[in-house]
Specification:
The protein is of the alpha+beta class. The chain is built from 5 helices and 4 strands, in the order H-E-E-H-H-H-E-E-H.
Length: 147
């Protein structure tokens, strides 16, 4: 990566964090994101980076509850706002929303949204969406599914 490319990546990451904070309601540096692919869909998990940060933990839970509800209704405005583009898989997630379940689960430091389907096309769309998130948020999570 050239110096110019590196500077462009730093700028892109800073813009993502700023848009993410606005869309999610919490400082992105105060939270840890993970995206996991499973054989039946996947998981979006966000937790406060500090165990003592109750404000961020609460904001994460509020955000993930809202995300589970919005995604189930076919509303993907938050990821679009965060990334300034429509993530891959979104059109299929919208089209197949009736065969996909989104469930919020509270965790000790935040929460997760479990995404489950038995429809192969829906699962592939979930995986495309989550792989994009892994790459864009630089989480280092595996790009392959786990049981």
């Amino acid at each position: 990566m050239s110096h110019e490319e590196h500077l462009a990546q730093i700028e892109k990451d800073a813009a993502l964090k700023a848009r993410g904070a606005a869309a999610m309601g919490f400082d992105q540096d105060a939270a840890v994101h993970h995206f996991r692919l499973t054989t039946t869909g996947g998981v979006i998990q966000v937790e406060a980076a500090s165990a003592s940060d109750g404000t961020t933990r609460s904001a994460i839970r509020d955000h993930l509850r809202a995300i589970a509800s919005a995604f189930a209704a076919g509303d993907f405005a938050a990821p679009r706002a965060t990334h300034d583009e429509t993530p891959p898989g979104t059109a299929t997630l919208l089209r197949l929303r009736t065969v996909i379940a989104y469930r919020f689960v509270e965790t000790a430091q935040g929460g997760r949204v479990e995404i489950v389907s038995t429809d192969r096309d829906a699962i592939e769309a979930v995986h495309a969406f989550l792989r994009y998130q892994i790459t864009e948020h630089h989480t280092g999570d595996p790009l392959t599914e786990k049981s």
